[in-house]
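Archive maintenance. Older records in this collection stored only the sequence; we are now back-filling the structure field for every entry so that each record is complete. The fields below show one back-filled record exactly as it appears after the update. Entries are processed alphabetically, and UDP-N-acetylmuramoyl-L-alanyl-D-glutamate--2,6-diaminopimelate ligase is next in the queue.

ARCHIVE ENTRY
Title: UDP-N-acetylmuramoyl-L-alanyl-D-glutamate--2,6-diaminopimelate ligase
Organism field: Actinopolymorpha singaporensis
Length field: 551
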Amino acid sequence: MAVPATGAVTPRPTRPPRRTLPEVVSFLSALPGAELAPAEVSYAERSDAGWADVVITGISQDSRAVVPGDLYVARPGDRSHGATYARTAADGGAVAALTDQAGRGRCEAAGLATLVVPDPRAMVGELSAWMYGNPARDLLMLGITGTNGKTTTAFLLEAALRYAGRRTGLLGTTGTRIGDEILPSARTTPEAPDLQALLAVMVERGVQAVSMEVSSHALVHGRVDGTIYDVAGFTNLSQDHLEFHGDLESYFRAKARLFTPGHARVGVVNLDDEHGRRLAREAAVEVVTYSAAGDPAADWRAEEVQPATDGGSAFRVRGPGGIDVAVSLSLPGDFNVANALLATAMLATAGVFPEEFLPAFAEVALPGRMERVTAGQDFVVLVDYAHTPDAIARALDTMRARTPGRLVTVLGCGGDRDRSKRPLMGATAARHADLTVITDDNPRSEDPAAIRAAALAGAREVPAADRGEVREVADRREAIRYALGAARPGDTVLVLGKGHEQGQEIAGVVHPFDDRVVVTEELARTSGCHGAALAAGHEAGHGAGQEGAQR
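Back-filled structure field:
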């Protein structure tokens, strides 16, 4: 059944601090920054003495998620002002609101004690942390940022910490984990009230260490304000999210915010990436460096890297103090060697040393990250989240070295996201794969055909001699069916872009769709009749012809 796109429900601590309204006003008024004027409080229809007795026990930016005792943050949004929903928040039990002058009247009309500040978003991170008792101070906080590799590194960190005997929390793209409980995630990095509530719940449940992804959006919007990471890691930076940041320089500066004293104590930075080298020079905190290419200038190095017979990698890690250990990694590709090296360096910097956790790397499996789907077929099928030109190239190059036959890829581009990367994604796939099937990803509010056309245009710009076969199959299931039907013994099929996702968003509605499930279903359907499936895929009317010659 299709459902509207909505967020996940965030658990709350069972014993939150109780803050009076005057205490909240005092905290807001003391926040540093010349642009943050002292909070102005309006008392609407109640007396000053009455409002002074108000007790606040939580904070929410979503009127639908308000619970009794909440402070409702009513700030400007992309489509509407949060104050529009102040009445809903009040009906849900909110007792006060934090808003700007534009939202003041509607919050007062809803009967909420209204705190007026110039920019609510700029305050909500610090306020949320304080409201929930600054839970990050009671946790070992490990944060990872970068274009690609955040999720894998976060999983490696969590697996290593578990192996080393720590009770862990995980926050990221694929979900939230508190000990053994798994919760869905609406964002890579939660909004500040949700983040701090989750951290407070983790503290209540005895979590000792948290591994989390920190997105550039989160850094710009202040979602992690009020949180200081014991160790912050940087993977790499390549084109993505330019619909939000505008240009690569702004994107870099957003990532670099994590490596400042207000957000991190120590940074671990990739010297193999040009932006990592720049960050190592410019970071305002202590920096530890790593290099999967074995750069002798790096503090931590991966050397003697070899593909393993199980499809992963084997290598040695050499680090400070004469550390020299052998590593077996279950995940394929040099990019995953870099992720494992980053995790190792971050953990060692935090005081957890390789001998305590390295065996965990041999067993790690990630949902939708080079995830193999097997149903007895005589070719390899992998589902991966790669959705940037760089990630696509890395995934295809990794499997080229491990594939005796052809590389076949299914690829789409997300709607309402960086449009400039779409032709680059199409070109990258066409250049690196023998057959590329361009299809829909999450079109969101955009015209799916226009998105596909942009990717196809990029593919067509690749010279014919350097280009594999390119086809357009609009329906994603049909595209997967076509690719599987085209596969021969010894080939590798990579279904890219959505990875772990379990839905496809079209025109604001999320339809159930999991690439892994669809691949399994289509493998069963096409078993023993690849040729028939290939013909069916072509005759379905979705093909837009062939571009280039098969390599």
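Update note: Residues 334-349 form the longest helix (16 residues). The chain has three domains: 17-129, 135-362, 371-539.
Entry marked complete.
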